[in-house]
Design a protein that fits this description.
By secondary structure, this protein is an alpha/beta fold. 46% of the residues lie in helices and 17% in strands. Strands 1, 2, 3, 4, 7, 8 and 9 form a seven-stranded mixed β-sheet that branches. It has a two-stranded parallel sheet with strand order 5-6. The structure holds D-xylonic acid (TK8).
């Protein structure tokens, strides 16, 4: 197997800090309301708007949940979070109050997970990719071309092996309450149409802070640059990166078409979201409230997944209307990409607990038989 220099996670985070320092001037306002860099203003706007919409108030509650996500308030993930709020507040008659934040107002995925560990924030719902920096087994979820379709993914995640992955977060002071869905990731860039594996050559692509992704894009000949989501729009605008990869809903709802010209339906990775709660906070809740937040995360997740899939399916035309050129990636081209990155999957699989890897792939196989 070819040995490659891997950007260490520490280095990746260092880079993010530098980029954050350079990019705090402009609000990355895409087509949608994305206020990642106007955090303070938005936090207060957001809470006022929210307070007006809720019949409950934080002052009357015994427990307050600060819940934050990286995506903006147009995204189905935020709708899911609002559904969680509604269910929890109603079920506890306002005794548990949920404050919702979007657009990285409380920090990026990694920072919010650290805040959960410290008990200074209660809920976040990251993509699983950055969770790898806390529990290494999560790397397996981000193997390119792993899940044949969304039903296979959900079957695996909602089965025993998925439960095991949720439980493994407890050692990291977090409680995994449910799987939500980000979806299949596609590539956009501002340089060239990408249809085949060869077309990745030389493209500087922002990746999530995840070594599997870094290695996979290197293998394809691209220059991957890990970066927190909150800095991505500015990074593309300023040309720090040529491109990025995310599901359609994100590409459209974050207004990426304003700074990107080419969209390729690569579908290269299925990206789950995982609903996380601070263990300190969870342990402080009475049993019946623990059950309520667990059920609410699950139920709101089902709603989020439904909305998310609809948007991921519908938004291609809207993206083209906004002027993006659609490069169609054939199954054959995808197979070639998959072959090129397979050594990366193998290499990471070797580093993980072998019993876990075996059981994981067996679960994938069984799920595939059920959802062809
Ligand atoms: C938002 C992220 C985002 C992810 C990424 O917090 O970083 O590209 O896809 O959705 O989790």
């Amino acid at each position: 197997m070819k040995k490659k220099a891997v950007l260490s996670v520490t280095m990746a985070f260092g880079l993010t800090a530098v980029l954050a320092a350079c990019g705090d001037a402009e609000n990355n306002n895409g087509g949608a309301d994305n206020g990642a860099n106007n955090a303070e203003e938005n936090v207060s706007d957001n809470n006022e708007a929210e307070a007006a919409n809720s019949e409950y108030s934080s002052g009357d509650a015994s427990y307050v949940i600060e819940a934050g996500i990286g995506l903006n308030n147009q995204h189905p993930q935020y709708e899911g979070l609002l559904r969680f709020k509604e269910i929890v507040e109603e079920a506890t008659d306002g005794d548990v109050y949920v404050e919702t934040y979007h657009s990285s107002q409380l920090g990026d995925d990694r920072e919010m997970m650290e805040a959960l560990q410290l008990g200074s924030q209660e809920v976040t719902i990251p993509s699983t990719a950055p969770v790898t920096n806390f529990v290494e087994e999560y790397a397996i979820l981000d193997f390119p071309f792993l899940f044949a379709n969304e039903d296979v993914a959900m079957e695996v995640l909602n089965g025993e092996i998925g439960d095991e992955l949720l439980d493994s977060l407890e050692d990291q002071e977090m409680v995994g309450l449910a799987w939500w869905e980000n979806g299949y990731r596609d590539l956009t860039n501002s340089t060239q149409p990408v249809e085949t594996a060869e077309d990745f050559q030389g493209l500087t692509i922002r990746t999530m802070e995840n070594e599997v992704h870094l290695e996979a894009f290197s293998e394809l000949g691209a220059n991957p640059t890990p970066m927190a989501f909150g800095e991505l729009f500015t990074g593309m605008q300023q040309g720090t990166v040529d491109g990025q990869e995310n599901p359609l809903a994100t590409i459209y709802l974050e207004g990426f078409y304003e700074v990107q010209d080419y969209y390729s339906d690569t579908n290269h990775v299925y990206s789950p979201f995982v609903f996380l709660m601070s263990k300190q906070f969870y342990d402080s809740l009475p049993d019946d409230y623990q059950e309520i937040v667990g059920d609410a995360a699950q139920e709101a997740g089902e709603f989020q997944i439904e909305q998310n899939r609809a948007q991921n399916e519908e938004l291609l035309d809207a993206l083209i209307d906004e002027g993006m050129e659609h490069s169609e990636v054939t199954d054959e081209a995808r197979e070639e990409m998959a072959e090129i990155v397979q050594p990366v999957n193998d290499q990471f699989a070797e580093q993980l607990d072998q019993d876990f890897v075996e059981r994981f792939f067996q679960a994938v196989e069984e799920a595939e038989e059920m959802h062809q």
